[in-house]
Amino acid sequence: MEQYFSILVQCPLFSGIEQEDMKAMLKCLGGKFISVSKGDPVFLEGTPAQLVGVVLSGGVQVVQDDYYGNRSVLSILQPGESFGEAFSCAGLENMPVSVFAMKDSQVLLLNCGRILTLCSHTCHFHSLLIQNILKGLAQKNLAFTQKVRYMSQKTTKEKLLAYLFDQAKQQGSAEFVVPCERQALADYLGVERTAMSAEISKLKKAGLLDTKGSWFCLKHVYQNN
Amino acid sequence: MEQYFSILVQCPLFSGIEQEDMKAMLKCLGGKFISVSKGDPVFLEGTPAQLVGVVLSGGVQVVQDDYYGNRSVLSILQPGESFGEAFSCAGLENMPVSVFAMKDSQVLLLNCGRILTLCSHTCHFHSLLIQNILKGLAQKNLAFTQKVRYMSQKTTKEKLLAYLFDQAKQQGSAEFVVPCERQALADYLGVERTAMSAEISKLKKAGLLDTKGSWFCLKHVYQNN
DNA sequence: TCTCCTATGTTGGAATTCCAACAACTGTTT
DNA sequence: AAACAGTTGTTGGAATTCCAACATAGGAGA
Question: Alpha-carbon distance A1 to A108, whole Å?
Fold first, then answer.
């Protein structure tokens, strides 16, 4: 158990909480360490939604099945990442997703109800924990907002430019570096890599853009295209 | 001021808080009621991100400008709705958006820092408020997750079916009613209304679907298309 | 009933995307 | 240098979407 404290203190969920407080906190929250074999579920859809999980080792997958059993992968989580907050905090009765171990994994399960309501005046880490959850959810919200804005553009070119303009703004310069490669960027924007490549070439030839690898430079010629 | 308490108690942000507690709470949180004329800003991009706003009357618009000044509308808020939580809770230094009044409006501004940290042991509504914010953010997260999942499908048909399958599942029946009209549904899915209409017709002719207005019925024939 | 209005469905050609196959470039290893 | 793997750019035809214009249906009100 103690062996995982060094992982936990690095996890965003526990940011600001000292390692020596960890044990008391886990006790207060009713934390349970569980081992899950590769392919086995951490929990299944329909489980009461009051769990927050933290991956300690291995890796897990959050999946959702539709009405006809077609399965889609919502996210893949590495050690240190947490899952389930959104469902538990949204006030759902039951989990709308299942979580499976992709490798043999260790997972810490917390009871979300205890996090949100109990004893907030005695444990000082309690409000810290809530703020961390809040911060995580809020950041995901912002990330989603951006992604949806890019994806809502009609054409590949518009999606790409919307993204690049945002990057320029965030990094405060028309010259900047994007955090991923072409394929990953295309996937993120919901476009085809080859179509995106073609658009980039066109923009280059038109003198509106320069790029090499993950480095981009926008020329100051834009208004509304 | 008191005149707005009846609006506030209906607002999701203050759900569970009694009208008689409202005054004390607003004092504790440093709430400020402000009037904004049509077209004027509630706040501008760059303002320190620690505000949460609640629309009391009129209506406001959240807008974001890109690096070259192209403006896009992120959301439109009616009385009772709140804004700014995501930015404040995400730990941003400054607001990345501006908020403008679309009509003459009354707005309540709260200091998010006070909500999250102060005096959580004395005011019992404090933890309620935090839970309400948490719940709101979590619900938006789930909504975004779904929307992104639909929009990530390649074709109009796939986007539509992903949505319909989800609706069937959520409503627990292959027969269900969608909460909006064709045009709004198309906009939400990021497709063209006419293309969507065409797909619906095809599915109907293929006997996979029946629909009239907002009523839909999926036939049990699907596996993976 | 007739008219108006809005929501929805239909259609055809232009524009765009998708997909597969391949070419060019880069960095690494041998 | 040569071989190799991985990333990025190019291209052409099939599939799909976009867009405008029009058709149809149903409801509200005169």
Answer: 10
